[in-house]
């Protein structure tokens, strides 16, 4: 690292020497010997320009350091506006100072005026162009100045990290804006979907209302079953700690304990609250000594049982008979669905039209905690 710095400074002083030659020889740069022979003090002038140039470089480095450490917004932008501002703050004062130095030096040895058209058309640019070029270079690479100041490298590193963070934040903001636009589009899509579903729901509710109205007029359990099938039973069983009456196909008593058989075949223990509500619900009919069946899931007709005179077999509606047969044997199901001769009148009485007129479909929506 030390070797690199020494080599860097060596290049700097070579450049300073060349700059001193350019400034003093000016338009005579292609023919230096003629000007050196014509002007005996030119060598001394070149020698004096070298420390003056070093002083200029110190001033430029100092101003650059102050601007960088102040966090000036023009300098931080690293664009055309910032470059013009930086060059104005560094090159312009040096140019004015250099003109004053030349003025007093020139008038001391000559009666001619320095500020002539010939000077600004030729020799002036040998000073201005290198100066502006160097200041522009230092604007983009401030750490390459001949003179560095305390914490300047740390400051530049912090500014580099800060610029990187600003770039990351800009990218993040752009990503957030894009995500916001996507969410807005998704929201609009959801709203459109909601409108479509609302329209479909209105149609379904209208149809359900018609079906429910038909049940109330005709008192057909088949019609009521169609309504519940469309409105409730087509969805997966998800009671979340509560059961509705339309979840239960039948209730059976075993060893003094009541169990419910649900539409999906699940068997659950019936607690005290549920027992009271189910036994009091008119949709559950006691068809045998230990079984109550939900009439919503039954057909009106009974089937005779061979060799069991007087006993009949209840018919479950096909979808639920099939689902229960996947869990229980046919003989087990038939044992629950027997309507005994003694309790057969309960089943027949339920289907009496006068009784159906009293039946309230909302009792099937009653819930209880399990």
Structure description:
The chain is an alpha+beta fold and 370 residues long. The chain folds into 3 domains: 2-149, no CATH class; 152-218; 240-369, OB fold (Dihydrolipoamide Acetyltransferase, E2P), CATH 2.40.50. The protein has 14 helices and 10 strands. Strands 4-3-2-6-5 form a 5-stranded antiparallel β-sheet. The chain has a 3-stranded antiparallel β-sheet with strand order 7-8-9. Strand 7 (298-304) and strand 8 form a beta hairpin. The longest helix has 67 residues, at 152-218. It is rod-shaped. Residues 1-5 have low confidence and may be disordered. The chain crosses the membrane at residues 7-29, 41-63, 83-106, 118-140. Residues 173-207 form a coiled coil.
Question: Which SSEs are present, and which pair or pack?
Answer:
Blueprint: H1 2-25, H2 32-38, H3 42-70, H4 73-77, H5 80-109, H6 117-123, H7 125-140, H8 152-218, H9 221-233, E1 242-244, E2 248-254, E3 257-262, E4 267-269, H10 272-279, E5 284-288, E6 291-294, E7 298-304, E8 312-316, H11 318-325, H12 330-336, E9 338-339, H13 344-350, H14 353-358, E10 367-369
Antiparallel strand pairs: 1-10, 2-3, 2-6, 3-4, 5-6, 7-8, 8-9
Coiled coil: 173-207
Keywords: Coiled coil, Membrane, Transmembrane, Transmembrane helix
Transmembrane segments: 7-29, 41-63, 83-106, 118-140
Shape: rod-shaped
Summed up, the domain count is 3
Strand content: 5-15%
Sequence stretches where pLDDT stays below 50 over 5 or more residues: 1-5
Distance between the termini: 80 Å
Q: Give the count of helical stretches.
A: 14
Give me the strand/helix succession: HHHHHHHHHEEEEHEEEEHHEHHE
Radius of gyration: 51 Å
Overall mean pLDDT: 82
- Largest sheet, spatial ordering of strands: 4-3-2-6-5
Major sheet details: 5 strands, antiparallel
Q: Assign a percent range to the helix content.
A: 55-70%
β-strand number: 10
SS-based structural class? alpha+beta
Keywords: Coiled coil, Membrane, Transmembrane, Transmembrane helix
Coiled coil: 173-207
Transmembrane segments: 7-29, 41-63, 83-106, 118-140
């Amino acid at each position: 690292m030390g070797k690199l710095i020494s080599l860097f400074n060596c290049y700097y002083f070579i450049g300073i020497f060349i700059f001193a030659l350019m400034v003093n020889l000016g338009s005579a740069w292609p023919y230096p010997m003629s000007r050196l022979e014509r002007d005996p003090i030119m060598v001394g002038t070149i020698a004096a320009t070298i420390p003056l140039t070093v002083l200029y470089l110190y001033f430029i480095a100092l101003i650059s350091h102050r601007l960088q450490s102040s966090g000036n917004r023009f300098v931080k932008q690293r664009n055309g506006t910032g470059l013009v501002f930086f060059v104005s703050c560094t090159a312009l004062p040096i140019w004015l100072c250099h003109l004053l130095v030349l003025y007093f030096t020139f008038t001391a040895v000559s009666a001619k005026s320095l500020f002539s058209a010939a000077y600004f058309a030729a020799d002036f640019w040998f000073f201005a162009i290198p100066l502006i070029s160097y200041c522009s270079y230092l604007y983009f690479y401030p750490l390459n100045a001949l003179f560095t100041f305390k914490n300047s490298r740390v400051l530049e590193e912090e500014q580099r990290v800060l610029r990187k963070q600003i770039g990351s934040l800009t990218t993040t903001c752009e990503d957030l804006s894009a995500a916001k636009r996507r969410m807005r589009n998704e929201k609009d899509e959801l709203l459109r979907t909601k409108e479509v579903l609302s329209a479909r729901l209105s149609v379904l509710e209208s149809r359900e209302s018609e079906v429910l109205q038909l049940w109330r007029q005709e008192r057909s359990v088949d019609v009521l079953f169609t309504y519940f099938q469309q409105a409730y039973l087509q969805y997966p069983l998800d009671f979340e700690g509560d059961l509705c009456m339309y979840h239960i196909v039948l209730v059976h008593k075993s060893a003094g304990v009541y169990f419910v058989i649900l539409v999906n075949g699940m068997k659950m223990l019936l607690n005290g609250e549920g027992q009271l509500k189910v036994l009091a619900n008119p949709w559950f009919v006691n068809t045998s000594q230990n079984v109550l069946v939900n009439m919503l899931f039954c057909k009106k007709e009974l089937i005779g049982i061979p060799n069991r005179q007087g006993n009949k077999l209840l018919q479950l509606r096909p979808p639920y008979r099939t689902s229960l047969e996947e869990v229980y044997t046919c003989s087990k199901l038939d044992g629950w669905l027997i309507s005994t001769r003694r309790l057969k009148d309960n089943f027949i009485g339920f289907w009496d039209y006068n009784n159906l007129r009293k039946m309230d479909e909302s009792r099937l929506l009653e819930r209880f905690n399990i």
